[in-house]
Design goal:
It is a single chain. Helix content is about 30%, strand content about 25%. The radius of gyration is 24 Å and the shape is elongated. A hairpin with a 3-residue loop joins strand 17 and strand 18. The protein contains eleven helices and 23 strands. It starts with 10 loop residues before the first helix and ends in a 5-residue tail after the last helix. The strands form five sheets. Strands 9, 11, 12, 13, 14, 16, 17, 18 and 19 form a nine-stranded antiparallel sheet that branches. Strands 1-2-6-3-7-21 form a six-stranded mixed sheet. By secondary structure, it is α+β, with helices and mostly antiparallel strands. About 50% of the residues are buried.
């Protein structure tokens, strides 16, 4: 393990990334990283400002002889997804990420790394700093709070950006150019209840835990058919071999991360506990077999625990359990026009009780608006039948490919000149800010690309060191070869 990231190449990129991982920046807590970017840019003598949506804008004049090139906007988001292993003590609002290089990759100790989108931010800062580069007029757009709702992109005002080309540095496979992405929709459901006291006798209190899942980015890894901890937990509760009383549930985390862990506290009749424990062990074996080759470490356990004072009413618990078990989740349809691309999916990201409500959060994605809306209506219908209230919010459209894009042509030629082969041109099921920004700035010529990042939105996140060098060299070569106005 080597924690001296600043010693890696390209030096300017890793210098900035080594600083960025030390700055806490989970979504909605981006004050310090905004300050870092602003102070750095102003220290270079560049025009830099922050807007009302907390986006940061920086302008760098064209290098000598490049004034007639089309203006380029380099764009990345400032926030990161805060996910950690259950046994890791870590405060994302205060603690620096413990990042290190290991075997050709940079990763973190038990937490997300923040290469998504920290490498993009670091690369833009490197371009701003390096006065040896050849480029036309540059703008840097650092957007706020992308991971939890693309707040910065939604808050972007028309008329601020001047460039004709936008390069989004938020993709995660080196050698691929993304020309389209999925749109998104949040389905947030609430079940309300008046908590009842737990029975004084005749029951055993038990905690059921689902752990060891891979999780990951709900747009990128959804195609891997990974297990969803919430779905596994409620499938077990729904098929329980004996009556149970539901006291509480806490499953999943962030809306755009496939749930890795979930747990529920239940009451079981004393005489049925051993049989239920046997059923849990058998269920664990079943789901391990079902996900063989996909999930290697599924753990489903039950153990006795302290009895809470309250529980959900029996009728509410039954309805909630059945509704979550029946909620659509995962890949719903694959694209026919682009083989291997998910067209429509859902992620049952969060299920949590607080003593008066059970709340569910689903993030839906689709490159077809009508399918995204229909999936939202289907989920709302499932929960409505059980007495839940669902709000469909935060809708944004996808980004439709333009295969005749001039910057696509130029970047394809640049990549081939550098590496002797053409890059793959594709779309991504994840939501990129390009769709929202393009809606506010019609006519922008846009491409998204980046280094190779594995397992984003999970504590296994890592970025390939060599790919960062290739990505940055490609970025620099692209800027040098941007078409004339």
């Amino acid at each position: 393990m080597d924690r001296n990231l600043a010693a890696l190449e390209p030096a300017l990129v890793w210098k900035h990334f080594a600083e960025i991982v030390r700055i806490p920046r989970p979504s909605h807590h981006e004050e310090a990283i905004r300050r870092y970017v602003l102070e750095f840019a102003r220290g270079l003598g560049l025009e830099a400002r922050e807007d009302e949506a907390h986006n940061i804008y920086v302008r760098k004049p064209a290098s000598k002889g490049m004034e007639n090139r089309k203006g380029v906007i380099l764009q990345a988001h400032l926030d990161m997804v805060p996910q950690k292993n259950n046994d890791k003590t870590f405060d994302f609002e205060k603690d620096p990420i413990d990042a290190y290089a290991d075997g050709g990759w940079v990763t973190a100790d038990g937490t997300t790394l923040g290469a998504d989108n920290g490498i993009g931010v670091a690369s833009i800062l490197a371009v701003l700093e390096d006065d040896t580069l050849a480029h036309g007029p540059l703008e840097a757009l650092f957007t706020a709070t992308e991971e939890t709702g693309m707040d910065g992109a939604f808050g972007l005002r028309p008329g601020v950006l001047q460039g004709e080309i936008l390069l989004n540095l938020d993709s995660e496979e080196e050698g691929e150019l993304y020309v389209g992405c999925a749109g998104g929709l949040d389905a947030n459901t609430t079940f309300r209840y008046a908590e009842e006291p737990t029975p004084a006798a005749g029951y055993v209190t038990a905690k059921i835990s689902v752990r060891g899942l891979k999780g990951g980015h709900s747009g990128i890894q959804i195609v891997c058919q990974r297990a969803n901890a919430n779905k596994l937990l409620f499938r077990l509760l729904n098929a329980a071999p004996c009556p149970l009383l539901l006291c509480s549930v806490d499953g999943g985390g962030l809306r755009n991360a496939i749930p890795r862990e979930a747990e529920a506290v239940v009451l079981l009749p004393e005489a049925d506990y051993d049989a239920f424990a046997g059923a849990v062990a058998a269920y664990e074996k079943t789901v391990r077999e079902e996900f063989e080759g996909i999930e290697e470490n599924i753990s489903v356990t039950v153990g006795k625990c302290a009895r809470p004072a309250g529980m959900l009413p029996r009728d509410v618990a039954v309805k909630v359990i059945r509704a979550v078990a029946g909620c659509p989740d995962g890949v719903q349809r694959m694209s026919l026009s682009m083989p291997g691309l998910v067209q429509t999916s859902g992620n049952l990201a969060r299920v949590v009780s607080d003593g008066s409500t059970v709340k569910m959060q689903c993030l839906l994605r689709s490159s077809v608006r009508s399918e995204k809306e229909a999936l939202g209506e289907a989920i709302a219908a499932v929960f409505a039948l059980a007495g839940g209230e669902t709000e469909l919010t935060g809708a944004y459209d996808g980004w439709n490919p333009d295969m005749k894009s001039p910057i696509l042509k130029a970047m394809t030629a640049s990549y081939e000149a550098l590496y002797g082969r053409k890059p793959a041109v594709t779309a991504i099921h994840a939501g990129l800010e390009c769709g929202i920004i393009g809606g506010k700035y019609p006519g922008l010529d846009m491409i998204s690309f980046g280094p190779t990042i594995r397992y984003p939105h999970s504590p296994d996140e890592k970025v390939e060191i060599a790919s960062v060098g290739k990505f940055y060299d490609f970025l620099v070569h692209t800027l040098r070869n941007v078409p004339e106005k």
